[in-house]
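User: Hi! I'm working on a homework problem where we have to compare a predicted structure to a textbook description. Could you give me the structure for the chain below?
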Amino acid sequence: MIEDKQRWNDRHVTRPMSKDASKTLVKYVKHANIDKALDIACGTGRNSHFLSSLGFDVDAVDISDFALTQIDNTPTINKIEADLDSYNITPNRYDLIVNMNYLNRRLTSQMKDALKSGGLIIFETFIVAHGEFQMPTTNLDYLLRKNELLHIFIGLDIIYYEEKIEVNRLGERVKVASIVAKKS
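Assistant: Happy to help. Predicted structure tokens:
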């Protein structure tokens, strides 16, 4: 855990993330009931701030204590410093779960269980890419396979799904999968 924490602290200092909320979140948040949200691997809180501004009470979880200090101290954002390899999500608690640019397969079944009836998940992260892609495939445990998100969230009502090639903020070509799904 200490190594992961230091690695993420260093990354947030040397390669700060955008302050803009995820485009997928902005587009599809209207499908969620505004109440309780979970922002997994929230980083410096770009999505947590956006959700708070809409009226959500947000649990913002990250391993990086540095990143969490960048999140505004507001009563509608509950900052939780936790190692996501051992963190457990409370069942039937959230109206919205957001997971951007992070993959921990251990948590995906917990995410489904943590959604209230009518709850929404917005999940977007990287897919294994070879060839012309500049982003190195260093650890396959943290990269999705083709159509994997569809299989992970089977049983939920799919509102949107896409796998696409994007150029990230560093100018690197990356493959990304996005899903928006609702629990019946």
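For your comparison, note the following. The domain at 2-182 is CATH 3.40.50.150 (Rossmann fold). The chain is about 25% helix and 30% strand. Good luck with the assignment!
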